[in-house]
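Record type: ASSEMBLY
Status: queued
Input:
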Amino acid sequence: MGQEKLTFKGGVNVPHYKSLTENKALEKAAEPAKVYIPLQQHIGAPCEAVVSVGDKVKMGQVIGKSDAFVSARVHSSVSGEVKEIKKMDVPGSLGVNCVVIESDGLNEVDDSMTVYSSLEDIKPEQILEAIDLAGITGLGGASFPTKVKLSPPKDKVIDYIILNGAECEPYLTADHRLMLENTSDVVFGIRAIMKALGVNRGVIAIEDNKMDAVEAIQAEASKYDNVEVKVLKAKYPQGDEKRIISAVTGREVPSGALPMEVGCVVNNIGTAKAIADAILRGKPLYERVITITGHAIGEPKNLVAKVGTPFKELIAQAGGFKSEPGKIVMGGPMMGLAQYSIEVPMVKGTSGILTFTKEEAEKKEVSACIKCGRCLTVCPVHLQPVYISACAIKNNFELAEKYNAIDCVECGACSFICPAGRPLTESIRLAKREILANKKK
Amino acid sequence: MKENTVETNEKDIIIPDMLIGSSSPHIRTNESVNRIMLDVIIALVPAILGSIYLYRGAAVQTILLSVVAAVIAEVAMQKLFKKPVTIKDLSAVVTGILLAFNIPAGAPWYVPVFGSVFAIVVAKQLFGGLGQNFINPALAGRAALMASWPSAMTTFSQPVAFIAGASGASVDAATYATPLVKLGLEAPAADIISQLPSLKDMFLGNIGGTIGETSALLLLIGAAYLIYRGVIDWKVPVVYILSTAVVLVVLGVNPSLLMYHILSGGLILGACFMATDYVSIPVNSKGRVIFAIGAGLLTAIIRVKGGYPEGVSYSILLMNVLTPIIEKFTTPKVFGRVD
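Status: finished
Output:
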């Protein structure tokens, strides 16, 4: 394909490690006997349980919702009986209310959602309603409620819908497999978003380390003259929302503003697939594709797994540990969250479970900064990580703020590239928290 | 369905009793400070071998004394300050080699030793060690030596051997002076050229000078390696040399003498190995280019208008001092911000 490869200024070449799973077709995970479904899996207000202990629930039935606008419904991923509602530790937070459901193994489906046969049958507001009812959140990792993202204020003119197929995090291949195996759903998803927002320009942007996905999506997208495929240079963090907008449209989202400020709405590949499921099959978001990978796992794979399944069951299905793991991360190695237990359940935002061997998990030795300037070269926001970090380490958060610490997207590129192994991202993250906390005072 | 569930597998999996819970990112580059320093040393090897070929034991003696003194000074200071000893990062070795490159082969033993000790103790460790020095330690050492033993530092021995293909026989030991001194003469360009070694000899290193500044070719091979390895940015040496050339012409130097200027007096050594020393130059790439322009400007001015025939080391030292100001005016524009 002689297509021009788009990119952004900054960024870093990271080792991909995607060959572990990129050619492994999606497999359905084994049925969990019990699921532990957190009532908050999204950015925004937590849901209240709408079921009680002892209730029989169907697969896809709403078990939690909230009246708040920024929130997303939670559904049961199995049919069975509610056994408990209790606070549990989940990936990323401690003590979150979870609904524990024992599966009856029947997977009886709740069919309360309307099924539409094609995009012509559904009106824009019905698309938003379906997304709301299905509890769809951004599946790239941030878990922002999709209906909120697709409800910009009236005065904002949106003219670009971008589907983020960069999957720039090393190791992860969930979006890659979806593009190959659920091609028409992915394209349907972006067209549904375009219709919901009345936008006639859709771009599916994919990194050039997935040319098979580019070809597959291209073949499907060519049926529609308003959907285009663009190839991105594989470079981290190309999948960051503002970076993909910059690469695709050349527009610069102002500091602190949302993509809608420059007329763009960006969604993840998995989100598009979930939207297709909601509209075409009346299926809420209770399962997703996750990549179980890393060098400590027996048999890395891409699983279609149900929300609420404990990590340890998914790990067992991927051949268990072949060596003692030193670290388990939810998500990719650059921005993922290290877990202290594998008893936690997977949630909507779980794009992968990444395992590191003991040797890999060992911390790199930290030495003195030699001002090589690599952290500046790779920073996608064009910050000076070396100086922000120095301020943070000296607790000088006022100066860190002057260096625009708050604009940091915490992508991890600076820490990755630092030859001295310095905790740049980590200390800047600390500075950001302090600055935000001081602002609230 | 039931028989497919993972309950049967569950007993096979080890439940780890301890997991590391650090914050992201969870992977790091294989590059290290140590590896960068090793690359610089590798890049200096051709010039080291060339100097040993040209000056034999005299070069070996000066380089060894300089490196050993630098390493011992580093250990001593770190022990004294009760800090961890970090000689394994190889930065003291780099300083030692670079300092030796600024000294004529076979200079009295105390010249390289004092220079290295000054470089490590005063310019580096007293300011906090690696990464904290605001001037290049090797150049600081050289400046101290120029002030202390000016004649030892400018008495250049003639190469005892010549790199193949040279017309080195034309060099007359009795009237020997570095090309730069002659370049400073008030005379028509043609007369000056007639007194200079051929450009080919200057490029190969068949001329007198300090250990490291003689062979442009061998230095450029090393610089090419550093650029290939991504250790240095090609813009710094290229802009430095171009800037020097342009300003020399502006100041009235006959363009036919430009190549002699570029190939003499440590310009290539300075541009490739000193003006690229991360610690003492601006951290952002625009600032580094401005640093290079400024160093070129100063080098040309010192050579043409100043009292010294050679201007590279003082130019870089002066620019080292200006580094914080350059950084202040070259702060990169943050994405999404207008100010």
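Annotation: The radius of gyration of chain A is 21 Å.
Annotation: Chain A touches chain B through 78 residues (CB under 8 Å).
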